[in-house]
Amino acid sequence: MNNLLEKVVKCYGKQEGYEVISQPQELPFAIAGYRPDLMVKISETRGLLIELKASVIDLDVSYYRDLSKSIAQDGNWRFLLITDEDATPIAEEDIADQKLTRPQILERKEKIAKLISIGEHEAAFLSLWIFAEVLMRRRARQSFLPIDRLPTKLMIYHLHDQAEISDDQFARAIALTETRNRVAHGFPVDPLNLKNDLERILNLVDEFIAMQA
């Protein structure tokens, strides 16, 4: 846990103008019974309240969701949950989280269609999987679920547990992780199965696009 604390403090401490406060005694607004592990002041009126967890086991996601909603009401502060098992870099919160535009979506789909047309099915599948992950992580952030840094499979489970994706979407996403793992690690995949999974993940991506907030 100390290593994680040091890593996070170092990361935000490098940002020009940021003030990093460990175990803050005073918060910018009252949150009954809660004290974050870190407060990062980006300015006098804007910043991050950060909870650190060494493990992703037994995370009380409903509690953190309520906490995230409460903090977001201020408008200038955001709650972050950072664990030692996160799949994404620490300082990802400054990335613009704007809704994907229709031209952006069409551009991505066009690139994937080109890969399929020349028989690059594995590359097309991985491109679609990355697109699906982007949409799922965005869904988590927009729903005040501080799980968008977690390993993908665990994030999918929490999205389902919190009713942000349907039973059917959950089952398809989990099944497709097996194909993703085989393709990403260079294991052979039956061409017919890969073709079918391409269609399945394309449908899933279309559904996630339609769910954008």
The description of the largest β-sheet is:
4 strands, mixed
Structural class: alpha+beta
Shape: elongated
| Helix-strand pattern | HEEEHEHHHHH
Helix content: 40-55%
Uncertain runs are none
**Number of separate strands:** 4
Helical segment tally? 7
Oligomer: single chain
User: Rounded to an integer, what's the Rg over CA atoms?
Assistant: 19 Å
Instruction: Please give the alpha-carbon distance between the first and last residues.
Output: 35 Å
Indicate the mean pLDDT.
90
* Strands side by side in the biggest sheet: 1-2-3-4
* Share of residues in strands: 5-15%
Could you outline the blueprint of secondary structure elements for this entry?
Layout: H1 2-13, E1 19-22, E2 38-41, E3 47-53, H2 61-72, E4 77-83, H3 102-117, H4 121-142, H5 152-161, H6 167-184, H7 191-210
Parallel strand pairs: 3-4
Antiparallel strand pairs: 1-2, 2-3
Helix pairs in contact: 3-4, 4-5, 4-7, 5-6, 6-7
